[in-house]
């Protein structure tokens, strides 16, 4: 009899317990591993995934409706790159945040004992994978890479939108890690909704990471906090990502802004967490024709699956049927698309939809209009002067990004807006677009709730490792019992603050 594929049924509670127990055991070994060892493991995983990239891309295309070129091939490159980037982040030891305070009898607060501080792995991490990035934010994705770099085992909750891809990626990842010398149990995988909840409640899980809907993320966040011993839950939930355009910017390059905006909100069929959902234009902007032309040249695209398509139809219906909203364009205006109808019932291709509303009407009903709609739709809000623009921004829900298209001649107006925009988001963009998140040392992908549950951290870039580390101080310990980065000789050569000096 042929064995049943693991992704076709819910992982049992007993199997979840076995997987988490193996991760707890692996965590003991990882806590003693050196950064150099983890560099080797991450590089080995990157090499192994790169070798089977054609196979993984083909599986992703089969399960998600996403095009192989350039989308999935680019995502495959990104997946391999981020593993190597985290390996690079381990090489200088800065992530340890090492600090040494020698004993000081004359310390102004009274005699100071010898005390030394650095970060250590937090323990097994539960990773909820995302639907819209089946490679980059999935089994071997950014959260998994960050956890492994921090020295934490990863228990991965596979996404039902690409289960076969998840299983194959996990097989390659697990084999590469153990063959490179990592302990058994360093990664595990579970399938099914209940298995994820069971794992989240397991006392062996020390932290969790999630990318997905606000409703789903909030439910899991509440579970994580309701545990007898609550754990950090790093959830990326929802974001509308407003784009503000000034009159001077329209006068200087209005057509380019219209084209760029349509390209941004339709990228990936509008299924990016950084999709700009609100375009704030001054009253009488005159960009209607340019926006319509940009929509007309944009082809229809499939959504990831029927569930997401159904959610998009429901969200689009609510916006289209709002009494104050006007359709600037509808899907029939775009190439190769039929007009949107709420009766449609498949993940068939959707063209982009642009809607418009006055700032007065928007302010009167932000609860209905300031909402994320996952898919190719965006809402234009027409404001009448800087004061009304400020009023709109003050009412917006926080998000991941806020974008400003302006000219240097707008310096005074921009300066007045920056405190509000900074309070709204974790990343500010000047004369660019929020879609397309580079992976780097300075990247910040987070923001106040509901964008994320922990706005002081990022889920993208090398600083994402900080989510899975916790600080520990050693007071009065003899040199021989201190971790190497805290010994006076500093055998790892890590950057440190010693007696307050770098």
Question: What features would you describe in this structure?
Answer:
By secondary structure, the chain is α/β, with parallel strands linked by helices. It folds into two domains: 6-237 and 452-496, Aldehyde Dehydrogenase, Chain A, domain 1, CATH 3.40.605; 242-430, Aldehyde Dehydrogenase, Chain A, domain 2. 39% of the residues lie in helices and 15% in strands. The chain has 15 helices and 16 strands. It has helices at residues 13-30, 35-51, 53-64, 68-90, 142-150, 163-179, 193-201, 214-226, 247-266, 288-296, 306-320, 359-364, 366-369, 386-395, 411-424; strands spanning 98-101, 115-121, 125-128, 154-157, 187-190, 207-211, 233-236, 242-245, 278-282, 326-329, 353-358, 377-383, 401-405, 427-430, 469-475, 496-498. The strands form three sheets. A seven-stranded mixed beta sheet has the order 10-11-12-9-8-13-14, with helices on both faces. Strand 6, helix 8 (214-226) and strand 7 (233-236) form a beta-alpha-beta unit. Helix 9 (247-266) packs parallel to helix 10. The longest helix is centred in the first third of the chain and has 23 residues, at 68-90. The protein is globular. The N and C termini lie far apart (65 Å). Residues 332-346 have low confidence and may be disordered.
């Amino acid at each position: 009899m042929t064995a049943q594929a693991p992704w076709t049924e819910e992982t049992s509670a007993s199997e979840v317990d076995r997987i988490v127990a193996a991760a707890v055991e692996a965590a003991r070994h990882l806590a003693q591993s050196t950064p150099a060892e983890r560099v080797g493991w991450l590089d080995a995983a990157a090499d192994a995934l790169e070798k089977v990239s054609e196979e993984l891309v083909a599986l992703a295309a089969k399960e998600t409706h996403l095009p192989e070129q350039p989308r999935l091939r680019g995502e495959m490159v990104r997946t391999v790159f981020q593993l190597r980037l985290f390996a690079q982040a381990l090489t200088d030891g800065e992530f340890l945040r090492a600090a040494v305070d020698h004993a000081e009898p004359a310390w102004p607060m009274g005699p100071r004992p010898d005390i030394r501080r650095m970060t250590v792995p937090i323990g097994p991490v539960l990773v909820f994978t995302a639907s819209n990035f089946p490679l980059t934010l999935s089994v071997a994705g950014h959260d998994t890479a960050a956890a492994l770099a921090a020295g934490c085992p990863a228990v991965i909750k596979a996404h039902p939108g690409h289960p076969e891809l998840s299983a194959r990626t996990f097989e390659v990842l697990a084999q590469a890690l153990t063959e490179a010398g990592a302990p058994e149990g360093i990664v595990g995988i579970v399938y099914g909704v209940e298995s994820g909840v069971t794992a989240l409640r397991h006392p062996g899980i020390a932290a969790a990471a999630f990318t997905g809907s606000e409703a789903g993320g909030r439910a899991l966040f509440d579970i994580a906090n309701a545990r007898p011993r609550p754990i950090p839950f790093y959830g990326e939930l929802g974001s509308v990502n407003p784009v503000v355009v000034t009159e001077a910017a329209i006068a200087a390059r209005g057509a380019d802004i219209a084209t760029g905006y349509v390209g941004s909100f339709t990228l990936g069929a509008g299924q990016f967490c950084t999709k700009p959902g609100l375009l704030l234009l001054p009253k009488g902007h005159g960009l209607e024709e340019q926006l319509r032309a940009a929509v007309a040249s944009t082809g229809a695209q499939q959504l990831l699956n029927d569930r997401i398509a159904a959610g998009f139809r429901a969200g689009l219906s609510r916006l289209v049927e709002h009494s104050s909203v006007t359709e600037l364009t509808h899907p029939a205006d775009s190439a190769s698309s039929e007009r949107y109808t709420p009766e449609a019932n498949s993940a068939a291709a959707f063209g982009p939809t642009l809607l418009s509303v006055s700032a007065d009407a928007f302010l009167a009903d932000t609860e209905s209009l300031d909402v994320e709609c996952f898919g190719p739709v965006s809402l234009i809000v027409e404001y009448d002067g800087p004061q009304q623009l400020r009023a709109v921004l003050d009412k917006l829900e926080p998000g991941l990004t806020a974008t400003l298209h302006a000219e240097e001649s707008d310096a005074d107006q921009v300066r007045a807006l920056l405190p509000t925009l900074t309070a709204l988001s974790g990343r500010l963009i000047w004369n660019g677009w929020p879609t397309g998140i580079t992976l780097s040392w300075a990247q910040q992908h987070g923001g106040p709730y509901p964008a994320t549950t922990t706005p002081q951290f990022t889920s993208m870039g090398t600083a994402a490792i900080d989510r899975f580390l916790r600080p520990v101080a050693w007071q009065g310990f003899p040199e021989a019992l201190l971790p190497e980065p805290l010994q006076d000789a500093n055998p790892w050569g890590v950057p440190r603050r010693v007696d307050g000096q770098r």
